[in-house]
Structures are given as structure tokens and as C-alpha cells.
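Run log, item B.
One chain of 114 residues. Sequence copied directly from the ordering sheet:
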Amino acid sequence: EAVKEGSDNHVISSALGHMEQTALPGEEGNCAIAGHRNYVFGRFFNRLDEVQADDEIEIETLDGTYTYRVTDSFVVEPEDVSVIEQLEGKNLTLITCTPIFVGSHRLIISAVLE
């Protein structure tokens, strides 16, 4: 399984982590998923910086597959938790450290359910 519940280091060292208190895929609100970018562990988001506006992101769950369209990508300080606030609509936020191997900031990919 590529996505597990929780976003602590124990979880995201071997998978992507669905951040607790955020919406599940396909639900109203903001589904936030965090992951590492490195070559030792947590490689799922290594190429996340290549994602661009209008790209599609598919999330397959037991309830079906949800397709999100990327609307934005930007960088924030690690303390900026506004990116996981619950929003109107069905949103997806992907979060990883940037620059790769440094991790001083957070790369954010925002998307909406099609």
C-alpha cells in the first residue's frame, strides 16, 4: 500500500502518509498527503517537483479511483500549516520537503477533484 494513515516519520519512511484530521480522497474538504523525497527511504515524491498545472493525479482506493487536476504548486516554510486547512470543494494537497536532500522548505501541490 502506497498511502498509510498518519504522517509521522515512522509512517512516511515506508509510505506516503494521509494526514490525520484531513478529508479522505473523494470527500468534501482537503485531503492532505505527505511524503519524503530521498534515495534511502520514502522515494514516492522524488519527482513531485516535475508536476505542473493541469496534470492529473489519480488516487485508487477501495471505494474507487479519484482523479484530481493540479491547480498550483508553490513552496512554503515548514511551519506554514495553512496548506492543510479544510476547504470548500474536494481538494488534494501533496506535501514534501524541498529542495531535495536539503528539506528546508515544503513543496506543495494543490489539486481539485474533477
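Observations after the first pass:
- The first helix runs from residue 9 to 12.
- The mean pLDDT is 90.
Flagged for discussion on Thursday.
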